């Protein structure tokens, strides 16, 4: 993405391409305002150009939010929050249900936009939008189940109970690789819990941010609700820093690198706010000697090549038992050679481009570093001479002790290594700083339960006989260690978006004290 000072007719011409006509169905034009504040589209910040990673040609222009836009938006949001939190939770759930229905009507268009602007294949783009729809459905049911506990009191004529109340405003900072799904994980839950949402989308996917916000805004307007309940900004680090520092935002959800996540966490903690961090992953699949090899190969292919290796849950390390090492590796090389790389909107393509030219450069530098540390390129390892940011899906044989294996290279690069026994495999799995996702392929119950137990994987997602990626929304999503420790989406993640109060009510005429204390 580049910054412009004036409008160029080039972008009007690009937007007029026949394959871009669907963007009009999402309310997008060749120049778009990138700040939704108090029900009004505005923008007084820099003008940027969003590009198609499949050909590096411009799609459209976006006028980003300025700090003046931010301040104005936050004032309105703070006022709207007081109204929204007083609406009964099931009524808030009804609004989120309508958001889900509105998304259903635009599923194909919005999924196509995700594919166009981010670069993932069309099936994955549509699947990402479906994930928000699923989150809306989940949140509707949740809106009638925000239950506290009634706790037995040791004192006569006393009752203890828990009350859950909204936090206020939830800030959500999302990344380019899932430009709308992660918003859904947070916003759907935050809204039914009675919070307003302030969203800063990824700087390189502003059209997704604008299109999704337009759909949500339409539902709020239809229900005659304050539109500042949902506020959205297109912008860079300055807006993100403002959200992190803003004392009006008690909870900030950040998805991105571990390095930036630490900065966000420190800033939010200094004002005693709370963070939900979804950071880097360095995920392993273990294939035991009794595994269904064909099942494992299919899973590894999706986990390592899907989204061109740009998921936080992408499989980056493949651990093979020494007795089946060569058999699995040979089979994997065969299927890699059949992977079609190209325009993600075309049928039959399994691997689209990397998101930016900077990502392409990182891939090249990463391959050089791998080779310098003794890594052997088994297949792939090169860029592809096309207009876009295309690379070959790559398999590398390397020692698990190599420093480069401990790092996250955001590209379709798979490190393959062998092990002798389960204990060694688990040690390798747990040896990296990150702790997001992991999986093992085996048929033996004793291995399965060791793997998911206290001496097994140290990750937040611990799978058996499925890939490391493609998590369902019903479970809590997140990881340990340098992945940040946050949990979003399903299970009881909703509790992080609410304030818990323990209430003790005395309905008698005496004042007995806890622990039997007699005070005068």
Structure in words:
The protein is of the alpha/beta class and 520 residues long. It has helices at 9-15, 67-84, 89-105, 107-118, 122-142, 181-192, 206-222, 237-245, 258-270, 293-305, 325-336, 357-372, 422-429, 445-451; strands at residues 2-4, 31-33, 35-37, 40-42, 47-52, 57-63, 150-151, 158-166, 169-173, 196-200, 230-233, 251-255, 274-278, 283-287, 315-321, 376-379, 394-397, 413-419, 434-435, 437-441, 461-464, 476-477, 480-481, 488-489, 498-506. Mean pLDDT is 96; it is low at 2-7.
Descriptive labels:
520 residues, alpha/beta, 7-stranded mixed beta sheet, 14 helices, 25 strands, 22% strand, globular
Provide a short characterization of the protein structure.
The protein is an alpha/beta fold and 520 residues long. The protein has helices spanning 9-15, 67-84, 89-105, 107-118, 122-142, 181-192, 206-222, 237-245, 258-270, 293-305, 325-336, 357-372, 422-429, 445-451; strands spanning 2-4, 31-33, 35-37, 40-42, 47-52, 57-63, 150-151, 158-166, 169-173, 196-200, 230-233, 251-255, 274-278, 283-287, 315-321, 376-379, 394-397, 413-419, 434-435, 437-441, 461-464, 476-477, 480-481, 488-489, 498-506. The protein is built from 14 helices and 25 strands.
Furnish the topology, listing elements before pairings.
Elements: E1 2-4, H1 9-15, E2 31-33, E3 35-37, E4 40-42, E5 47-52, E6 57-63, H2 67-84, H3 89-105, H4 107-118, H5 122-142, E7 150-151, E8 158-166, E9 169-173, H6 181-192, E10 196-200, H7 206-222, E11 230-233, H8 237-245, E12 251-255, H9 258-270, E13 274-278, E14 283-287, H10 293-305, E15 315-321, H11 325-336, H12 357-372, E16 376-379, E17 394-397, E18 413-419, H13 422-429, E19 434-435, E20 437-441, H14 445-451, E21 461-464, E22 476-477, E23 480-481, E24 488-489, E25 498-506
Helix pairs in contact: 3-5, 3-7, 4-5, 4-7, 5-6, 10-11
């Amino acid at each position: 993405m580049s910054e412009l000072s004036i409008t160029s007719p080039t972008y009007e011409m690009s937007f007029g391409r026949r394959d871009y006509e669907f963007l009009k169905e999402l309310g997008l034009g060749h120049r778009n305002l990138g700040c939704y504040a108090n029900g009004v589209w505005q923008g007084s910040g820099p003008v940027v150009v969003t590009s198609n990673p499949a050909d590096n040609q411009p799609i459209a222009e976006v006028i980003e939010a300025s700090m003046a836009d931010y301040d104005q938006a936050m004032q309105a949001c703070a006022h709207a929050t007081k109204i929204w939190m007083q609406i009964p939770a099931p009524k808030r759930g009804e609004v989120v249900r309508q958001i889900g229905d509105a998304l259903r009507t635009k599923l194909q268009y919005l999924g196509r936009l995700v594919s166009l602007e981010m670069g993932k294949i069309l099936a994955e783009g549509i699947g990402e939008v479906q994930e928000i729809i699923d989150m809306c459905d989940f949140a509707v049911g949740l809106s009638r189940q925000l239950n506290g506990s009634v706790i037995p009191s040791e004192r006569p004529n006393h009752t203890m109970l828990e009350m859950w109340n909204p936090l206020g405003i939830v800030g959500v900072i999302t990344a380019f690789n899932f430009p709308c799904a992660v918003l859904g994980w947070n916003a759907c839950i935050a809204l039914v819990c009675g919070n307003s949402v302030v969203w800063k989308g990824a700087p390189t996917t502003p059209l997704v941010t604008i299109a999704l916000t337009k759909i949500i805004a339409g539902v709020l307007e239809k229900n005659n609700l304050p539109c500042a309940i949902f506020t959205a900004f297109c912008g860079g680090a300055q807006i993100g820093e403002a959200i992190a520092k803003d004392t009006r935002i008690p909870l900030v959800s950040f998805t991105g690198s571990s390095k930036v996540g630490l900065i966000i966490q420190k800033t939010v903690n200094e004002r005693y706010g709370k963070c939900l961090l979804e950071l880097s992953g360095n995920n392993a699949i273990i294939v035991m000697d009794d595994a269904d090899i064909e099942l494992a190969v299919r899973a590894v292919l999706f986990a390592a090549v899907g989204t061109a290796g740009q998921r936080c849950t992408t499989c980056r390390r493949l651990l093979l038992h020494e007795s089946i090492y060569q058999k699995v590796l040979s089979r994997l090389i065969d299927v890699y050679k059949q992977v079609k790389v190209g325009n993600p909107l075309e049928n039959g393509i399994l691997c689209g481009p990397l998101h930016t030219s900077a990502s392409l450069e990182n891939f090249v530098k990463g391959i050089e570093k791998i080779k310098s540390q003794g890594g052997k390129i088994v297949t792939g390892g090169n860029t592809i001479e096309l207009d876009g940011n295309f690379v070959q899906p790559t398999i590398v044989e390397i020692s698990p002790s190599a420093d480069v294996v401990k790092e996250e290279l955001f590209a379709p690069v798979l490190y393959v290594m062998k092990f002798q026994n389960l204990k060694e495999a688990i040690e390798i799995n747990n040896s990296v700083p990150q702790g997001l996702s992991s999986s093992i392929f085996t048929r033996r119950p004793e291995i399965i339960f060791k793997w998911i137990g206290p001496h097994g994987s140290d990750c937040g997602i611990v799978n058996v006989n499925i890939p490391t990626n493609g998590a369902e929304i019903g479970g809590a999503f997140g990881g340990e260690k340098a992945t940040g420790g946050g949990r979003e989406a399903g299970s009881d993640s909703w509790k992080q978006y609410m304030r818990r109060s323990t209430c003790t009510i005395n309905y008698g005429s005496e004042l007995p004290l806890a622990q039997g204390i007699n005070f005068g």
